[in-house]
Write a structure and sequence with these properties.
Structural class: alpha+beta
Largest sheet: 9 strands, mixed
Helix content: 10-25%
Low-confidence stretches: 189-253
Radius of gyration: 19 Å
Strand content: 25-35%
Shape: elongated
Number of strands: 15
Distance between the termini: 16 Å
Number of helices: 6
């Protein structure tokens, strides 16, 4: 929701000629695509190895316990929860969050009841919606319709936070439009970044012309997914990738 409802919506208003083709994949796949030069930039979700990439990070967000009310007796709606509140309850989460969650539970002296590990937040919410257990997903994923009828309880633990990041390779060709896509993240309050500033966005001389567009028809960007989206351009949340096409100028999401 954060990506499509806010970021992409505003970006598309500023760059109305951009067209998207979404290719689904996870964060690790998008990282490999960027390393191999098949996509120019991506929106990923931490944790990932940021070595060799310029990154613009979104705000930290907690993992949220999502499930049927029967799993949370005595809890008020949206009340925060501790990891100890999850002890003994069937948990459903991303396989890539295994190291993070294992360490957090171990530090609390808890042996978690892991009911299902998988590779997609939507799967977590689907299983939770069926009453099979408690999904542990990033906060922004709770805005998906799949979580509409489920209780949500943010987990109070600094060791179980995650955030989204727009990234591109430090070395190698990256089009001005791909850089602008990544730097667009900086327009949102409280987001942190370690990428150079692109003052004023794309200047006229930096906007790719039709000849450049023919040479680089699909600038790449990615986002994960919990809804990751990669972009020829790559993006996903655990993910997806998308590419951008424009009529007279290539503008990458």
């Amino acid at each position: 929701h954060m990506l499509t409802g806010i970021f992409l919506k505003d970006f598309c208003m500023d760059y109305p000629d951009v067209r998207f083709e979404l290719t689904e994949g996870n964060t690790y796949q998008l990282v490999e695509l960027m390393k191999n030069g098949l996509i120019e930039c991506a929106v990923l979700r931490t944790p990932f190895n940021s070595e060799g990439f310029r990154c613009c990070y979104g705000p930290k967000e907690p993992l949220v316990a999502v499930g049927a009310a029967s799993f949370f007796p005595g809890f008020a709606c949206d009340q925060t929860a501790d990891l100890k509140d999850l002890a003994g309850k069937p948990l459903i989460y991303y396989r890539r969050f295994e190291p993070l969650l294992s360490a957090a539970f171990q530090n609390m002296g808890i042996n978690p009841n892991i009911f299902c590990r998988n590779d997609d937040a939507r799967t977590c919410l689907l299983w939770a919606g069926a009453g099979l257990g408690i999904a542990l997903v990033p906060e922004t994923i709770c805005n998906l319709p799949l979580a509409r009828n489920l209780e949500r309880h943010p987990i109070l633990s600094p060791s179980t936070t995650t955030r989204m990041a727009a990234v591109y390779k430090k070395n190698g060709y990256v089009s001005p439009v791909a850089r602008e896509f990544v730097s667009y993240f900086k327009k949102y309050k409280d987001w942190q970044e370690d990428i150079p500033s692109l003052s004023g966005g794309l200047s006229e001389e930096n906007k790719p012309d039709s000849e450049q567009h023919r040479q680089h028809p699909h600038p790449a960007a990615g986002v994960p997914g919990e809804l990751s989206h990669g972009a020829h351009q790559g993006c996903t949340d655990e993910g997806g990738a998308f590419s951008a096409d424009v009529e007279d100028a290539e503008k990458l999401p």
